[in-house]
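Summary for the steering committee. One of the milestones for this cycle was to obtain a three-dimensional model of the protein with zinc ion bound, which we needed before selecting residues for the alanine scan. The sequence and ligand used are listed below.
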Amino acid sequence: MDTSCLHSIVVAPSFLERMHEHARNAAPQECCGVLGGRGSVVTSVYPLTNDLHSCSEYFANPQEFFNAVRSMREKNEEMIGIYHSHPTGPAEPSKMDAERNFYPGLFYLIISLADEATRSLCYVMESDKTFHSVPIV
Ligand SMILES: [Zn+2]
């Protein structure tokens, strides 16, 4: 997949705060969700339940995921990204993240709660499973 057009992701501060809140509320477990949008612009945030209720991995509830995709279709959005949190680790993709990311070409936003300030970094995974970071603007 050609990911060269994914140079940056546009996330309104209110959307970013919504994800950060989700991450803080779910801690010490990881949170997850999907991002609806157009091109590289996020137009909706869909928080999903982490069915694993784990501090180190996540799996989105399939029914909620299905509902989110249906809402996107109704709103003429596409799924442009996935987000999840690292309650104690850095905002970098883990080895498991690379292994379990089945969606190359999507934005991959990671929220870190390791420091006092909640922080997010965004990546795009190439088809060879390497990540390159893209600025959140
Ligand atoms: Zn992760």
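Key point for the committee: The first strand starts at residue 32 and ends at 38.
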